[in-house]
Amino acid sequence: MLDIASLTLLVYNYLISLDAEIQLVWKAPWKFGKLLYLLTRYLAFAGAVLRIFLNQSRFLSLGTCNVLTETMCCECCLLRALFCHF
């Protein structure tokens, strides 16, 4: 239930700040800061959806469960690699 509440807050935040994001981020030239912003903004959605899917899917095959778990680990490792160097 907490995962669904977190996703709801992410969607709410996305919707209220979309206009500013379009003006300030999407129209800006590609730089490292823009890449970091977009990765952190949209990987959070992917992670939240995966967590909900994993928590709600009790009858997944072992292979599917392993793939989804590895995907979440890769997301965490990518974010750590990006932010631990700064």
Automatic annotation (TrEMBL):
Domain DUF6533: 4-45
Tree of life domain: Eukaryota
Pfam families per UniProt: DUF6533 (PF20151)
Listed name of the protein: DUF6533 domain-containing protein
Organism from which the protein derives: Dendrothele bispora (strain CBS 962.96)
Lineage, broadest ranks: Eukaryota, Fungi, Dikarya, Basidiomycota, Agaricomycotina
